[in-house]
Predict the 3D structure of the following.
Amino acid sequence: MKENFGQLSRLVEDGAAPQGNRSHAVSEEIKHGLMTGVFRPGDKLTIRDLAANLGVSPTPVREALVQLAAEGALAQVAGRSFVVPELTAESYQDLRRLRVLIEGEGAGRAAENATKALIDRLAHVHEELIAAKAAENYKAAMVWNQRFHLELCAAANSPRLLRIVEGLWLQMGPILNILYERHDVPATPVRHCHLTVIDALVARDAERARAAIQEDISGSAPAILNNLDYQHTEQSRGRK
């Protein structure tokens, strides 16, 4: 897992910002790492290692990890260690159903008041996603995909909705990491759902935007479930 730390941004040194700002920056960086698959299910996160790699003292790291554990994104184990939870098929399907409902609502609201700036930004993000997948740069593809979904929901202008979506992504990001790592990535459809979302935003068609993002979320379900089944099989073999 330590090799993944290189993908985290080194934050300001302790003396350069007030404690509250440092704690927030550390929390946001770890959250981003979870949502974009920097960390894998089963990875152990220690206060000491994270503090060293982020360039801060242990205090803001400890505060961030304890908060993430309280939110269900991490599990606290003995001592100062925290673990990225393993997802069962049942847990994944529950998360997917919630994402379908809530991100669908976010897309519908975003379509009702979409601006040209939002549409242009999402079009650029999608282009970067497709380019990353074409180059088989799956780490970058995960980042761009997460950005598309989060920016779309942010455009719903509902901080509550966005917080819920971010919480779901904190739990989904690590499993998507392994999906991309094995290159078990769903084939891009003839017309990507993201493009349909963008068309719906242009037309301010809330129902079409809702349906398109829901189809996008559901489309990866077979590959993710196959991946979870593969992990379970490998773990069962390892115990024999």
Observations:
- The domain at 89-239 is CATH 1.20.120.530 (Four Helix Bundle (Hemerythrin (Met), subunit A)).
- The chain has two domains: 2-83, 89-239.
- Confidence is low (pLDDT under 50) at residues 12-17.
